[in-house]
């Protein structure tokens, strides 16, 4: 199938395109001489240490926040020519951050906003602690708890590393003490749990807490020893492994009964593609810590098997059968049941580059080309770039439907392009290919669309699902309610899709894009979203609540605070407003539940 271009001209990519034009022999020789001279000068100055020295060095405080000394080797290949020059806008961003005399005032402003996020976390935790401690989730309006995730106290574990990052030692100690006292018994005696949800929230949360507490023992000085977290993660993972070992193929069953140590498929016999392919970061790290390869071996069999299956330009259906090992149906989307398959391709590769898992990077690159060719379109009348779906497969019709879940993609694209370093540094070091720059442009365009899904509504909060007026699709009288929005006629919000679950995907991408581009607009957008959460979802007695309809004022409220509001949404907002050396993207990958997992290198030592 012939490749199409993105729905915007390549000239829209904001950089000097001269490196792709023909140059004379004199230009080549003189430019080479200039490049070598510039590199020698940069390496000798205080701000030009180079990526190899900046990444993985133990500079300053060797705390949990600067990566705990786990290093990263240089791993990028260099293209043969000079990198594109920064555009004037990008130069302004860089200059403002280093030469603006008002920088200290800006810093204090963001410190204050970060404190506001910390206060929101304390308010959410206090409501949970008061009314639902030990339950999976809080029902803040009813002021009671509910077990919707198997009864392992999911909010406690999900929130723990957020408290550690925020240096809320009292909360971390409370959560840790509950885990030490209650979780072992629950792992032994609880019933059915979902393999995916339990791995990303509980196993991932425990492993992250183990690493952070190991690197900063003061964070849980009144709580348990770090080994408690690792022991519980291992014991839980041992039971979850039955989902893999019970299956006749490399594809695990979806559900595990903890007390029986048995696993079984979902009622329809199928597993979600995203669920079976979003376990590997956690299981790989557990194998690294314990020295037992079984966790990594079983989980990586899934991706190794998926590598062999037929795909559509790297894109895959959203269901897969554990009984046959084959994909089921033709539905292709990057929303629910498809999303984190693509996210983990690049993140698992980043996590362990020293392993010969280059096939993951190749699968990721192929998939992103498929996304750009088959799923990326522009809205009408104002040209928002969005990612649609192929519910009937490549031979069926295109749907201009975009889940809020798809808003993970801008951050993933940016991370895949620069591998976690800033765009300016990557360009200075000649690390970005043409495709990397194209993916960064798409990331920024999609991040704008995700933010406009918020600003187009009456509440300033996004719906669960949006549609886009575009070629072949148009609906009237289903706008978000904010008539002053420039994009009020581009975005369609159907009545069944108007709820908001306090989801993190957009602020996750804003966090990653701010770290990589250093563009303050992503902070401003994040603050706007946080203010809307504060205004419309905060429950005075404690906690925050989901909403039924973001297009109405006042919005109808649902009675639930998802665990990911503490584990993801507030964590990403806190990090967005903070210093970039806190949980650096060059030393950690975030699992799909926002639990930071250290990047593993050949020089890293087990704790």
UniProtKB/TrEMBL annotation:
Residues 92-103 have a biased composition (Polar residues). It catalyses: N(4)-(alpha-D-Man-(1->2)-alpha-D-Man-(1->2)-alpha-D-Man-(1->3)-[alpha-D-Man-(1->3)-[alpha-D-Man-(1->2)-alpha-D-Man-(1->6)]-alpha-D-Man-(1->6)]-beta-D-Man-(1->4)-beta-D-GlcNAc-(1->4)-beta-D-GlcNAc)-L-asparaginyl-[protein] (N-glucan mannose isomer 8A1,2,3B1,3) + 3 H2O = N(4)-(alpha-D-Man-(1->3)-[alpha-D-Man-(1->3)-[alpha-D-Man-(1->6)]-alpha-D-Man-(1->6)]-beta-D-Man-(1->4)-beta-D-GlcNAc-(1->4)-beta-D-GlcNAc)-L-asparaginyl-[protein] (N-glucan mannose isomer 5A1,2) + 3 beta-D-mannose; N(4)-(alpha-D-Man-(1->2)-alpha-D-Man-(1->2)-alpha-D-Man-(1->3)-[alpha-D-Man-(1->2)-alpha-D-Man-(1->3)-[alpha-D-Man-(1->2)-alpha-D-Man-(1->6)]-alpha-D-Man-(1->6)]-beta-D-Man-(1->4)-beta-D-GlcNAc-(1->4)-beta-D-GlcNAc)-L-asparaginyl-[protein] (N-glucan mannose isomer 9A1,2,3B1,2,3) + 4 H2O = N(4)-(alpha-D-Man-(1->3)-[alpha-D-Man-(1->3)-[alpha-D-Man-(1->6)]-alpha-D-Man-(1->6)]-beta-D-Man-(1->4)-beta-D-GlcNAc-(1->4)-beta-D-GlcNAc)-L-asparaginyl-[protein] (N-glucan mannose isomer 5A1,2) + 4 beta-D-mannose. Belongs to the glycosyl hydrolase 47 family. It is an enzyme of class 3 (hydrolase). Pfam families: Glyco_hydro_47. The keyword Coiled coil does not apply. The active site is at residues 197, 339, 464, 505. It comes from Lactuca virosa. Keywords: Calcium, Disulfide bond, Glycosidase, Hydrolase, Metal-binding. Pathway: Protein modification; protein glycosylation. Its EC number is 3.2.1.-. It comes from the Eukaryota. This is alpha-1,2-Mannosidase. One of its GO terms (biological process) is carbohydrate metabolic process.
